[in-house]
Each structure stands twice: as C-alpha cells, then as structure tokens.
Write a structure and sequence with these properties.
homodimer; eight-stranded mixed β-sheet; Rossmann fold; 23% strand; CoaB-like_sf (chains A, B); 36% helix; 10 helices; catalytic activity (chains A, B); alpha/beta; DNA/pantothenate-metab_flavo_C (chains A, B); DNA/pantothenate metabolism flavoprotein C-terminal domain-containing protein (chains A, B); two-stranded antiparallel sheet
Chain lengths: 328, 328
C-alpha cells in the first residue's frame, strides 16, 4: 500500500496558491508591529553608518495540524548553520538581524544551550553559598560573553524569533521590505528550514485529532513559493543567498540551478545532510564551487561557516560595487 | 474536499499492530544499554533504602516522515508539567527518574532555559574581565542551584532523555520492567505527549520528500497501545498515573474513564489545553475530583503541581499500605 503520493492538480487547475493569497487568508503574528519597529530602527541606524547588513534566517518552521494546536509538522534544524554564520558575519563587521526559530541555537549562547550539560551544570556554589560559573568553563565563557556583549552594545546584533510558518512568512516579508532601503548593501542569508507543505486554516480540524481504529490520512497543500516575490518585489537590490539541503546527491546541483532560474536570485549554498559541516557547494547562474574543510582544519576545529562567509563577502563586495558577482 | 479522515480497517482485519510486533519490527535506540545500566543502578540504590521512586515522562515524542529525517511530526509539550512535578516529588522525598524529550524543560534549570533571555543574558563581566552571574539573578539562581545540587549529590534525581517515539517506547518498556522490583513503592507519572500516529519504517520514504505541484498525502498508522502491556506486564504492582489533555471539554472525563477501563491502571489526571496550569481533574474508577488554584494562590505564584503531587502522595500511601486507593 503506497503511503505517500502527490495528488493531481485539482480539477479547476489550481495547484499551489500564490503568496499574495496566502497573506490575505492568514493572520499576521500578534507581535508583527513590534518586529517591524525594531527592524526599522536597526536598519536606519546602519544605513546612516553605511554598515553592510545581513538578515539571517535560522531553524525550522512548524505547521500546525489542528487549530487548537497539539500536533504539528516540524523541520529538523538545530540552527547550527545560522548561529555559527551570525558570529562570522559579526567578526567581519556586518550588522546581523538574526531571525530564528524560538529556542533554537543563537550566536554565542550556542556553545552552552544544547549540550549534555543542563543550564545549572555550568554553575557552582562557593563555600558561603554564592553562585559562580564553574572554573572549568569560566575562562572560555568570559571570552564568548565579551564578544556577545560587544555585538549587543554596538547595536550590531538584533535577535528576532518565529515559531510557525505563518510567523516566518509575515516577518520575512516585512523584514526584507524594510531592508530594501539598504539597496545592494543588504544580504539575505536564508538558512531556515521552511515547511514545504501545510494545512490551510480553513481545512484544519478545530479540535485535537482523535485516535480511532485504523490509519490517519493527512492531506497537505504546498506552501506558496515566496522566494519569487522576495527576489522580484520585497528585497529589491540586495544579495540573496538561499540554501538547499539534500539527501540524494544527484539532485543537489540540478535543484539549485532550477531554483536560481525559477526565482532569479544570485546564489544557492547547497549541502548534503550527512556532510554539511564539512562541505558546501556555491552555485551561481554561471558557476559551481565546492568548498571543504581540510583534515588539518577539521583537526583544529575550524568551522566551515568561516569559509562560507569568506566566500560570500567576496561576492557581496562585487555586488555592492557593480551589481554583479563578477570581479571577485 | 475532506482533508482528514480515518480509513477503514484493512481488509484482512488488521488495524493497529500490537506492542510486541512494534518492538520486533523496530530497532532499539543505540544508547539503550546505557539507559538500562543507569536505571538499574538507581533503582537498586533506592530499593535498598526503601525510598519511593517515581518515573516521570515529560515532553513530546517525534515521528519521522522520512528515513533520512528532514521532517517529522511533533507534539506540543514544553515539559512544564513534568519538570515542575519532578521538583515537587523531590521536595517530598521521592527519588525521581526524569525521562524527558531532549532539550525540553528540566527540573530547576527550567527557570532559565526557555525565557526571553538567552543563556548569556544571565551573565556579566567584572571590570577585570571575569565572568559572573548578573546580580539581578544571582540570589534566586543560587537557591535553585542548591536544590538541584542536593538532589544530584543525594542521588535522588536521574536524568534520561528521548527524541523519537521509538526511543521513548523502548526506554519506557525497559525502565518500567527494571522498576518492577520496587513493587508498590514505584509510581509512574506518564506526562509525556506521546505520538498517536506514526509511519512504520517499512513504509517510510528513504529520501527527503520532494515538493512537486499539488498536494502531499501522508498516511499514518496508529501507534500501538503500549499502556496495556505496561499495566499488565511491565510495571507490575506500581501506581500508574496517566494524563489526558483535551481541547473538547465534553470528551475529558469519558475518555479518561475509557482509558482506565481499557488499560486497567489506577489514575488519570485530566486537563484542558487552555486551563491546565490552573485546574486538573483526578479520575479513578470510582471517583472524579477537580483540583484548582484559588485566585489567592494564583496571585502568590503557587504552581498547580504542588497540589497534584499532594493528592497523589495520599493515593500512593494508600497504595503502598494495602494495594488500593482507599483510605486516603
């Protein structure tokens, strides 16, 4: 018995809805106004100082399966790529808007939040009952804290979050439209693992789906291709970098090229699920470039994001100068 | 167009598979042996000291939708009920095995891990660059840390985790079978939000499901009713408390009673999604008892788990004394 198959297009010729329709049919997140206010302030601050700004999206979006949400579909994404990249961009003088799945990895804190230690395992009590960071961790944590505090006090790092696909899409649209004023100085680093399928509100069960004898069938609609309006309308002249994660090697470059042709943006960073921490491929309209960590680099705990950002900075410099990827 | 419906039983009369078949068809988690060793040691330690032991399960299980997992179905569950309850059990002299969804809320650390502050927001640097806990948080954190460290140093708290439904079921079976030696001194506090539906390995796609025009249909099998063997075989004579979360008030008590009759355990703690932090209902074969926080208690930040555990301790004392819930 086949368990998964793609349905035919509906008889009326409708397949996937367009992004405008999505935004009309769904409610914006309750904190959208606050998101827009903080983002506008941050963008304006850096426009005045001519600092390049990157919007990084990180972590997975969820799609609820019921209106009173008990169950949802999620995308595997710890947020490693996004959070490590944020640190590298900051090191290189970029202002960073870090739009991440709530409770996923964040720059700097990432070293401590998702380990075998729980929060309190990093702490200890002195003899007179005062709390301090355990000496085992204190020096390294102080160094990391200093970098984090510097990024915050220099207003170089804006942290924003999302949970559902809907939160994400509304915030992505608002964020990119606000950043359009930066022209080519803006970069979009779309590392989030965005849901491909969802259940539209009008088709969703009100109450928790009940277990009954037999199987459960869920029919999900395809998520609108929002990258299209992002490239052609919202993000104006910025440099747009999307990501492709594959498990079948044969599909990686073809699908990346397909995306570039379909959406009209500039760069796809492709990686395979099992080797994404060691190797990535930069795919542009005209080129494919594989970047990997050498054994020596792996032994020295170099993170591949250093190399990713290094490459992207070359592309972005060319982009800012003359609006193409050439000359790097 | 209907989007969700329950299929008929298959022609051969097979509906949901039984738990034994589940365990035969699925691989145990790679760390099961370590889980069993630690659990056995903990249980033995407390058996010798006649300490009551509670196994708390907390957080949601996931079911993968592909073999090389990119997408999965998850159950909304921060782990509040389980983690707060663990603290109350510990306060009352119980040894606690806290089997939780990896990265969900844990006793004590829960006050710090899922807030608007990220990890490093709790820290500060002294003038000579040393790290310390920010004075704003230090006193309260020291108190919490002291409780946590006491529980650990007295070997009263064993932390174990799971991610997938499969991890959870194998560990639940092993854990309850190991605890059976405690007889009626064991309590099982099954607060985890366990998947009701899953895709069996043999029916799962190998690679990441591809987006194509049109909808995606997923057919999920019902998860075997493992509460049955837990009550009748694995957990022997312990006091078994299961939870029921509902969004439709009409269904809460009927479904709780249905579970008690179907599985033969002793107590269901029922709650409604929207009021679960203020009100719970204890349902036994013969009784229903609603327990709520008063306005004064709410104003004084009393947590409902204090009242839940207080009730359960009465039931458990009676259970330990004479094997029934009477006499409390």
């Amino acid at each position: 018995m086949a368990t998964m198959h793609d349905n035919q297009l509906l008889d009326n010729g409708q397949g996937v809805i367009d992004p405008d329709t999505y935004f009309l049919r769904n409610n914006p997140p309750s904190n959208l106004a606050e998101f827009e206010a903080k983002t506008s302030e941050f963008v304006q601050y850096h426009k005045e100082r001519n600092t390049p700004v990157v919007l990084i999206t990180s972590g997975g979006t969820i799609v609820p399966l019921e209106n009173q949400t008990v169950r949802f579909i999620d995308n595997f994404s710890a947020g490693t790529r996004g959070s490590v990249s944020a640190e590298k961009f900051l090191e290189n003088g970029y202002a960073v808007i870090f739009m991440h799945r709530q409770f996923s990895l964040q720059p700097y804190s990432r070293h401590y939040t998702h380990s075998t230690n729980c929060f309190l395992d990093y702490m200890t009590l002195t003899e007179d009952g005062k709390i301090e960071v355990d000496a085992k961790y204190a020096a390294a944590m102080a160094t990391t804290l200093a970098k984090y505090q510097k990024a915050r006090s220099n207003n170089m790092l804006l942290l924003q979050d999302f949970v559902t696909l809907s939160d994400y899409l509304f915030k992505l649209k608002s964020g990119t439209r606000i950043m359009a004023t930066l022209g080519r100085s803006a970069m979009y680093y779309l590392a989030a693992a965005v849901s491909d399928f969802f259940i539209p509100t009008e088709k969703m069960a009100e109450h928790k789906i009940q277990s009954r004898d037999g199987a459960l069938t869920l029919t999900l609609d395809q998520v609108p291709k929002f990258l299209k309006p992002l490239v052609s309308v919202w993000a104006s002249n910025g440099l747009i970098v999307s990501f492709k994660l594959e498990t079948d090697e044969k599909l990686l470059v073809p699908k990346a090229r397909q995306a570039l042709e379909k959406y009209g943006h500039q760069i796809v960073v492709g990686n395979m699920l099992t080797t994404r921490k060691k190797t990535v491929t930069f795919i542009t309209q005209d080129s494919e470039r594989i970047v990997s960590l050498s054994q020596e680099e792996l032994d020295n705990d170099v993170e591949i994001e250093s190399k990713i950002i290094s490459e992207l900075l070359k592309y972005h410099r060319a982009w800012i100068s003359h609006g193409t990827l050439e000359g790097q």
